[in-house]
Amino acid sequence: MGRKRTTGGTPATVSLDRAGVRYEVRPYEHDPSATSYGLEAAEALGVPPAQVFKTLLVETDKGLGVGIVPVDRLLDLKAIAAALGAKKATMAEPSVAERVTGYVVGGISPVGQKRTLPTVLDESALEHGTILVSGGKRGFDLEVSPDDLLDVVRGRTAAIART
Question: How far apart are CA 24 and CA 60, in angstroms?
């Protein structure tokens, strides 16, 4: 896996390039009628769903936060609240998520958001040499090591996914 330099890339690729992080661009043909962007990506790219991660925004009594979980699992709101040092968490409204991150729902990347938010990656990511996350638009994923992702987003891991 080599670093792909992009000119005119997404904020995510620009951030990774600036940080000197190695990643691979993994585009695929997005179907607008797909009901699950993440499962669509896993199927289109021939990658197990447990290796493809979705980025979700939550609202807590401490402010907004980001949870990154496998696409075939759900975000455990109690677990992410605890990981963020909050009492409780609720899913952020899609309009809030888009405004705060600068990305559209279904293409929200954990990297290159408008502002840095507390970020928690599900610990299952560490079972993989690389994981796929959105590159900042639908049909555009990035393959990156979990450790490099954590460094770039200044995140931490915790058990935040449930079936």
Answer: 33
**pLDDT tens digit sequence for 130-153:** 999 999 999 999 999 999 999 999
Categorize the per-residue pLDDT at 7 as very low, low, confident or very high, splitting at 50, 70 and 90: very low
**Nearest in space to 130 (alpha carbons), one of 34, 59, 50:** 50
Q: In sequence order, what are the beta bridge partners of 33?
A: none
Quote the CA–CA distance of 153 and 49 in Å, as a whole number. 22
CB neighbour list of residue 13: distance below 8 Å, 6 or more residues apart? 4, 6, 23, 25, 112, 135, 136, 142
DSSP 52-86: BEEEEEEEETTEEEEEEEETTSEE-HHHHHHHTT-
Residue type, 31: D
